[in-house]
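Subject: sequence -> structure tokens, single chain

Hey, anyone have a minute? Need the predicted structure for the following. Not urgent.
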Amino acid sequence: MAFKMVCPKCGSLNYSVERDGRSYIRTGPSSELIFSCRCGKQMFGDQLTEEFERQRSAYEAQAEERMAAEREREERVAAERERDEKMRKAMEFRQNYLRERRAIEEEEARAAKEDADRRWRERVATDEDDEDHDHDHDHGDHSHSTPSRSAFTVVAVGGDEDPGLDEEGLPYPPGTPPNKGHHLCGWGPCVNEARSNSKYCSRACSNKNARWRHKQRKK
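Reply:
Had a minute. Here:
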């Protein structure tokens, strides 16, 4: 920054330097100059020149300190800008990472749900196949085997008439008339009533019967 003289009284730059046009006070080049500041300070001729030289010498003596302070300020500003840039990049990286991680977790959750649904459908299909296979096997072999509940005693409703056997060749539960078509669960040890659309009372009995038949086939 170039040197500029300031008012020695108020330290401002609100002053003016003019030449005095009156010839009778001219004693040299500097005697024509008049310094006037808005604070009321005035200097004439050599007094103004001496003040100018004093301030310029002090300015030049402090130039190195000012340059060092300016370099320090510039380095501080550069360091702050670099820190802000690093912080911005770090925040951007974190946002991208969280976005990608959230997408991965959503994809994993979706895949896990699809896998669970697939395994559930496979298990249901396997249970239905086992139930259909056992149902067909019982129809094909009931003439050559004894029903698992042949020891149950059939009790007629409202008289001594024998209600007979159901469509699977099994006796009806005690007290159940044959015209309703009710029958016991297909799993031997169970005495519960079977569901209307199945030969078993529950999925548990169906699985137990399938496991038992699997073991018998292995033997």
